[in-house]
């Protein structure tokens, strides 16, 4: 048993240099993406369509539902202890800075990480990757870079979209809950939105997008020959993305509190 644990740990750490090299290669390829052919740009557009545009409805429902529920429950409680004005701080802290980026990242992971990993895994088993290499096309340039940029940009814009929906959606609810609460809602809300909160939220969205795209493409390429490995790659992409997102969130929170 100890031997098996030792071999697993050794195998895990032996893959770290390869993973770091892969991440560096993705960053280098993505910075030069604008010089690619139109075919690669089409991959980026399709990734944005699937990850960003098609995810807008569910993000809209989640943001408005979360913001409204938080407003109704939080305002009632805070008003009972004479601190009703703190509801705006609560909204900006939870919707914009903490839960917003996390929920968006989880939705994108559930929708796109599996799709990317299984798609690339299928291309590996069908020898399409070998065909790209034989034709002199770098798979990272053509397949990974546009997906990396597409997912990262999608999480970034979806987080902005979530913040607007989660903060402005409760304004409509406030019209029915309390006329006093709705008075000056936008003004009071803007007073609590700081530059630090906006930067933290956007930084989280960018980091989360990078984690999702790199993890999904990495495990997609890790498929070897058997088609039975494809669903396993999808599961690994989702589970490892969740872990990476949570760890990145903790690191950003710790660094922002210093």
Describe this structure in words.
There is one protein chain. With 258 residues, the chain is an all-alpha fold. The model has no long low-confidence stretch (mean pLDDT 85). It has eleven helices and no strands. The radius of gyration is 21 Å and the shape is elongated.
Topology:
Layout: H1 2-14, H2 16-31, H3 38-53, H4 56-80, H5 87-125, H6 128-134, H7 139-177, H8 179-182, H9 185-192, H10 195-221, H11 229-257
Helix pairs in contact: 2-7, 3-7, 4-5, 4-7, 5-7, 5-9, 5-10, 5-11, 7-10, 10-11
Summary?
The chain is mainly alpha-helical.
Overall, the morphology is elongated
Main beta sheet: strand number and arrangement?
Answer: none
Distance between the termini: 42 Å
- SSE pattern: HHHHHHHHHHH
Summarize model confidence as the mean pLDDT: 85
What Rg is obtained from the alpha carbons, in whole angstroms? Answer: 21 Å
Helical proportion, percent range: over 70%
Q: Estimate what percentage of residues fall within beta strands.
A: under 5%
Low-confidence stretches: none
Structural class: mainly alpha
The overall strand count is 0
Number of helices, counting only DSSP H or I runs of 4 residues or more:
11
Task: Throw out a few tags for this protein.
mainly alpha, 258 residues
